[in-house]
DUF2334 domain-containing protein (Kushneria aurantia), 256 residues
Amino acid sequence: MAEREFALVLHDIAPETWPDYADFVAEVDRLGRIPISWLVVPDFHHRSNTFEDAELLALLDRRREQGDELILHGFYHCDDGAAPRTPRDWFMRRFYTVEGEFYAIGHDEAQSRLAHGEALFAERGWPLHGFVAPAWLLSAGARAALKRRGFAYTSDPGHLYTLPEDRPIAAPSLVWSARSGWRRGASWLVNERARKRHRHQPLLRLGLHPVDMRHKMSRRWWLETLRHLLDEGYRPTTKIDWLQRRGVVPNSDMTA
Ligand SMILES: [Zn+2]
């Protein structure tokens, strides 16, 4: 069988969410060297600032030096745009998610938040290649702004997209909806099936959220899945390493 890889991706990294992940990351480290892709939110919900938290910054510095990838994941993460005006808008912003920061803003605001995030990464000396929108949602204006900024890629649940071309590359995600009991039960089933269905894909992404860590069922499923994948011969990678090794994005970064 062709080589298969997986990327372990931790969503919503900020001082407020790190305690959810800390023990889990320690357990992952015990499985061997598994590089992690960290989705960093600069100022989570306007109240938890990653770039003002010396401890978290030092941790991310260390992880980066070990080969982990740091990715910009929105700026505030929450949707604080004006109230939804259309039924579709209401569905996307209140029912599907309340975290679609880059779905609720247009081109200019997206551009300014991206530039701000890039500057924070650059000040810290962190290479930057990827941008992932909160809840994977981009408005048309935000998407246009993103394409002009110099990022190598973005993603949604099914694909990575090289930028600025916006060329999709299949890379399915396993992801849980862990916020209620019935959603966790359904997620277990959906993800077990998805893992089998996607067994021929060269890259499988594991998209973890802080809430997954707070429930035994989801947390245990993620650890067991990591073990299964390693046993089945999957190699762990970061998203940017995988893209660069395949030669689909350049081997430089936008802060260099
Ligand atoms: Zn997120």
Residues 11-12, 73, 77, 134 surround zinc ion (CB under 6 Å).
